[in-house]
Amino acid sequence: MSLDITPVEKGKAVHFKNPPIAFFNAIGREEGMKELMYDFYDKIYESDIAHFFPQDENEFEQVKEKNTKFFIQICGGPKVYEGESGGMDLNEYMIRIHDDFSITEKSRIEWLGTMREALRDKAKHVDQELIEEFWDYLENFSKLTVNTFSDGSTYYAAYTQADEEN
Ligand code: HEM
């Protein structure tokens, strides 16, 4: 599976397309998405970005649950994350959530690499084309979560730098 990562460029507009409902169906809808996301977070805890996430088991469980709900909805599934985002566009809300953390390109690459492993383990039954569409969303959208750069500068992406192609 070749799921590539292209570098983030500070301040540059990012183009992305939400993942297709076909990916959600193929992964196994709510249950399948839950398995993928729980596996992803188990791997996160073994990764170089583990320190970003809560160490408390109950708090960690909440992050796993919210993350699962977000991905169900962003793929066009049931609107189970609506209550969290308070009606705000989901992607705009995600940029804001991540502004509370200092995320570098290195962390983004670790996050994506971890997700790639979870997909290898949990999406074996899904068509390659659908995995690639899901990946394209992650790979592009994740650029808007990077807010801390190697020269020490910070830059918080505005939602206006996102160009959704839906
Ligand atoms: C495609 C890119 C990404 C998506 C879609 C995404 C999605 C999410 C979601 C849905 C949540 C839970 C939000 C909630 O509380 O309701 C979350 C939390 C979080 N994400 Fe991401 N994320 C992405 C990239 C990253 C990256 C690159 C990092 C790098 C470290 C990161 C770090 C975090 C942290 C630290 C939290 C909060 C955990 C807490 O509540 O303590 N995320 N993310």
Structure description:
The protein has 166 residues and is mainly alpha-helical. It has a single domain, classed as Globin-like. Helices cover 52% and strands 4% of the residues. The chain has a two-stranded parallel sheet. Helix 2 packs across helix 3 (57-74). The longest helix has 18 residues, at 57-74. The chain is globular, with a radius of gyration of 15 Å. Bound molecules: protoporphyrin IX containing FE. The site of protoporphyrin IX containing FE has 21 residues, from helix 3, helix 5, helix 6 and helix 7. Protoporphyrin IX containing FE binds at residues 49, 52-54, 63, 66-67, 70, 84, 94, 97-98, 101, 103, 107-108, 111, 138, 141-142, 145.
Write a brief caption for the model:
The protein has 166 residues and is mainly alpha-helical. The protein has helices spanning 21-27, 29-44, 57-74, 82-85, 90-98, 105-122, 128-141, and strands spanning 14-16, 162-164. The longest helix has 18 residues, at 57-74.
Give me the oligomer status: single chain
Shape: globular
Q: Based on helices, strands and strand pairing, what is the structural class?
A: mainly alpha
What level of helicity do the residues show?
40-55%
Largest sheet: 2 strands, parallel
CATH class: Mainly Alpha
CATH architecture level-2 label: Orthogonal Bundle
